[in-house]
Write the structure tokens for this entry.
Amino acid sequence: MNSEIFEKTIVTARFVLEPINSSHAERLFESLQNEKLYKFIPTDPPKSIELLIAKYDKWAKRASPDAKEIWLNYAIFDKKRNKYVGTIQATLIENSSNYIAYEVFPEFWKQNIATEVLIIFIEFLFSTFNILEITAHIDTRNIASIQLIKKLNFNLVQLIENADY
């Protein structure tokens, strides 16, 4: 696979998806502190900019150390607002499932950001990589995200009760 594809910026009508690197840590840190983001995902806000830089440095390698996973992590930049409004990512696993995850910062909820970004991101994944399916794990209490995924024609494959962590 051409390594340039991992650094490709993806553009929609309203947004630019920038491959995440350590320079994004300072720009995203404050928005990532909002506790509302973590209501339905089993993680905590980054404890410091330094730890977020280390995380983003790891992600910027775009693959796991054994090269069995491809990591595609993007910051979502709103062109009109001139602000970052969230993140989106995919993990492609050799001979296994492929996962997407996304988070829109709470001040930008209910503005169809996730819908627009996911449509173009999913098209990018299918047209660029040899994958047959994409999986999203969603907390059963996260009704908005479930509705979004249904709108994008995902199918419920499995329901895991009490899967908080």
